[in-house]
Amino acid sequence: MLKTLLPLSAAVLLSGCIVHVKSGPGSAPKYFDNQQLTLSAATLKTLDTEAGAGNLSIVGSDTATEITVDAEIYAYDAEDFTLTLKEKGSRAELFARASNSNNWQVNSPGPKINLTITVPTNLNLIVDDGSGNIEIKQVSGNIDIDDGSGSITIEGGNNIIIEDGSGSMTVNNTQGDLEIDDGSGEVSVNNIAGTVTIDDGSGSINVNGAGGLVIEDSGSGGLQIKNVKGKVEIDE
C-alpha cells in the first residue's frame, strides 16, 4: 500500500493543487490554485471586469503603473475555469469565471474565483458581476457596476452608477454624482459631492451628506436623510 501512495503524494506536491475526483454542480470544488495576471496601464483609461461567482476587491494605488490581478481559483478541475486579462484599445478587459457557478452564494463551497485587483488610482471601472461581495477603494475614476447579489462597499470614486439585484450597499466620499437602482438590501451613502439618485425596491435607505437627493422610489423600508445641501425630491 505504501508504494501506491508515495507517487500520488509526489504528484500533488509537484502540481501545487488538488485536481482529482471529477465532480458536478452542487459538490465542493476539488481544484485550488493561485494565479497572478499583470498588464501595463500606460495607455489605459478603463478596466472592464466580467466576473462570475466569487468576491471582488479593487484597490487604487498612486504608484501603480500596471493592473495586477491576484486570483484564488476554486473549480472542479484545472480545465473548469476561465481567467484572462487583455488590452483592447484604451480598455483592459478582465474575464474571470469558474464553470457551473451560476447558483453560487456567499460562503458556498461551490466553484468561484476570488479576485484582488490593484489599479492606478485614476482608472475608470466597469464591473459586471454575478455573485459575491464587491469592495472598491482609493479610486478616483468613474465607476459603473451591474451586480447580481452580494454586498457592495465603495470608498471614493467620481461619478458612480450601480444596478444591484440584492445585498447591502455602502458608498462613501465620492466626488461626483451617485445613481443607484437597487432590488433589495440596505442602502447607506455618506458624503457624496454631487446628486444622489435612488430607485429602491426594499430595504432601508440612509443618506448623510449629499449635494442633492432624488428618491425615485423608496420601496419598503425606512428612510433617513441628513445634511443634503441642495434640493431634495421624493416621489411618493
Notable features of this structure?
236 residues, mainly beta, 18-stranded mixed sheet, 1 helix, 61% strand, disordered N terminus, Toastrack_DUF4097, DUF4097 domain-containing protein
Notes on the structure:
The protein has 236 residues and is mainly β. It has two domains: 30-135, no CATH class; 159-236, no CATH class. The chain contains one helix and 18 strands. A hairpin with a 2-residue loop joins β5 (81-88) and β6 (91-98). It has an 18-stranded mixed sheet that branches.
Task: Please describe the topology of this protein.
Layout: H1 2-15, E1 31-40, E2 46-53, E3 56-61, E4 66-75, E5 81-88, E6 91-98, E7 112-120, E8 124-131, E9 134-139, E10 143-149, E11 152-156, E12 160-166, E13 169-174, E14 178-184, E15 187-202, E16 205-217, E17 223-228, E18 232-234
Parallel strand pairs: 2-6, 2-8, 3-7, 3-9, 8-10, 9-11, 10-12, 11-13, 12-14, 13-15, 14-15, 15-16, 16-17, 16-18
Antiparallel strand pairs: 1-4, 4-7, 5-6
Domain DUF4097: 51-208
InterPro entries: Toastrack_DUF4097
Protein name: DUF4097 domain-containing protein
Number of helices: 1
Q: What does the largest sheet look like?
A: 18 strands, mixed
* Structural class designation: mainly beta
Number of strands: 18
Low-confidence residue ranges: 1-23
Helix content bin: under 10%
Radius of gyration based on Cα positions? 21 Å
Form type: globular
Distance between the termini: 74 Å
Whole-number mean pLDDT: 88
How many domain modules? Answer: 2
Helix and strand succession? HEEEEEEEEEEEEEEEEEE
**Percent in strands:** over 45%
Pfam family, one: DUF4097
Protein name: DUF4097 domain-containing protein
InterPro entries: Toastrack_DUF4097
